[in-house]
Write a structure and sequence with these properties.
40% helix; 7-stranded antiparallel sheet; elongated; 404 residues
Length: 404
């Protein structure tokens, strides 16, 4: 639609609301506002209008203000909704900063709007302006109690440096790529990095564009405190807490919990099996100074489980070669002898844990640098100074139903 047609027919522009659900109580207690042009009972999205750089900022600010006012009136008359997510383009914020602040101070006086209930949602991956200027303005907004959300963060638009600089209260991760068969193999790892960064800066993870139960389960397993998408609630011209879904959501999340508990029990069972088998192996094959030769004997007992073994000391220095299985044949990679792995996350922590517990440890799933497959590592103390590290193959984990 032509921007002028939209502005001259503002009476047809209305807010639509989509619920945001909490992992804490499985209830809808927030909602996001979208602008819609409604004609002949058909609601047309206005995303193209607000993201079109050719549309002057004053036009976009005028329409934003029109939508905000209607949305806030409905919000203040709705029970059970604690937060209102309002979209704003960074260019508009920087061009009309003082007017933007004055507008919300007016809403505070006119509607008794608690400013701490307002979340300003911005999309930064297409922003070409001055990030420092945006950072200062966002800091200014925070002094009024308003919250900041970064919208549609994804694998291709992670902007980790921008997230760190702007330090938002919420980080919204787009899960639509999960439905794309061509998504990069590193997708899970990048999202884990986002989750880790959000936790470090004290931001809450919101997963959006949830269209399936599988995506909802993924969001729940990967640090999502809030969820949004058509699977849970479709945009509507009214704020209607989705109480009709309460029982269904309880059953859904109960399935997630039971599934996760079974996975944890399975992982503990694998760890116990490896502990027992390793103890039996060490009874027959006592560790000796020729670690490379000793590893070949150990490998014979773990043909099905492992594809790589090596020995390290308590400071992380490798005291053996890598023994690697390639096409069912074990090969020594002597160039790894003497390398230090103390820089790896959790490496030294696991050494201390093995010392204190006097038993082996099964790692979380992670992507192997060389094979790029998801694997786990089983580490085991073989003396007071030495530790065996056994990388478990994807095939073995798959057979154990422990690969996801």
């Amino acid at each position: 639609m032509d921007p002028l047609d939209i502005l001259t027919q503002k009476a047809n522009v209305r807010p639509y609301f989509q619920g945001v659900f909490s992992a804490d109580d499985w209830q809808m207690n927030a909602c996001e506002v979208y602008g819609r042009f409604v004609v002949d009972e058909k609601a047309i999205g206005l995303g193209a209008f607000f993201h079109d750089a050719n549309v002057p900022e004053e036009y976009r600010f005028e329409l934003d203000a029109h939508i905000y006012k209607q949305a806030i009136e409905l919000f203040m008359n709705s029970a059970g909704i604690e937060k209102l997510f309002l979209n704003a383009h960074p260019d508009v914020l920087l061009a009309h900063g003082e007017e933007f602040i004055d507008l919300f101070l007016t809403f505070e006086r006119e509607f008794s709007l608690p400013l701490e209930s307002v979340v300003i949602e911005i999309c930064v991956h297409t922003f070409q302006g001055d990030l420092e200027h945006l950072h200062h303005f966002i800091t200014y907004l925070k002094t009024y109690g308003m919250k900041i959300s970064l919208d549609r963060i994804g694998v291709k638009e992670t902007n980790l440096d921008v997230i760190g600089l702007l330090s938002p209260h919420y980080v919204k991760v787009n899960l639509r790529p999960m439905l794309d068969q061509t998504k990069p193999q590193s997708y899970d790892d990048v999202l884990q990095s986002l989750t880790h960064l959000a936790r470090k800066i004290g931001a809450v993870m919101i997963y959006q564009e949830i269209e399936t139960e599988f995506q909802l389960q993924y969001a729940w397993r990967n640090g999502g405190q809030y969820y949004q998408g058509n699977f849970l609630d479709r945009p509507s011209s009214f704020i209607t807490p989705a109480t009709s879904q309460d029982e269904a959501l309880k059953q859904t999340f109960s399935r997630f919990i039971n599934h996760e508990k079974k996975k944890i029990m399975k992982r503990m069972d694998i760890e116990k099996q490896l502990q027992r088998k390793m103890a039996e192996t060490l009874e027959r094959q006592k560790a000796h100074q020729c670690y490379d030769e000793w590893l070949t004997h150990v490998a014979a007992d773990f043909q099905n489980e492992s594809f790589r073994l090596y020995v390290c000391d308590r400071d992380g220095f490798q005291r053996s070669a890598n023994l690697v299985k390639k096409e069912a044949v074990w090969e020594l990679q002597k160039e790894y002898n003497g390398k230090n792995w103390g820089w790896r996350p959790y490496f030294l922590e696991n050494i201390v844990r093995m010392d204190m517990g006097a038993k082996g440890i099964l790692s979380d799933l992670y992507s192997d640098i060389e094979t790029k497959q998801h694997i786990r590592t089983f580490s085991y103390p073989i003396s007071q100074q030495l530790y065996l590290f056994m990388d478990l193959s994807y095939e073995y984990l798959f057979d154990q139903n422990d690969h996801v």
